[in-house]
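Troubleshooting log. The previous structure file for this entry was overwritten by mistake, so regenerating from the original sequence record. Sequence copied from the archived sheet and checked twice against the printout by T.R.
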Amino acid sequence: MRKITSLLLLAFLITACKSGEGSGVAYSGPVASANWATSATAYRGDDGLLVAFQCTPNANQSDVRPVWGTSVYSDDSSVCSAGVHAGAITFKDGGVVVFEIMPGQEGYEASEQNGVVSSPWGSWSGSFRIVQ
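Regenerated output below.
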């Protein structure tokens, strides 16, 4: 019985870690509707808070909004576009983007990933990172 309980616990922990795409974060809270222009500025200062946005499918080039940063994004970046940049969703399918609110950074690096080109930026007062 003890061995079965241990195996079940191990299976649960593995599943929880996989659901956070390697981040160790499993999100089960509410999901807010968002469009491709929605940013994370409303959550500035709520460091550590996990938030989820449902991004609409079938985004086209005119829907794409700016993103500043790589891995960590300035909070005025489009959360949905950052989700594509990070590989969590696609423009075609949309989907749920879970992100963590973080303090501002001294700078943000540019990169091109998954068809999204992010821009560099200097010091900014709020940030987020995509966790799934």
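Residues 1-22 have pLDDT under 50 and may be disordered. Archived copy saved in two places this time.
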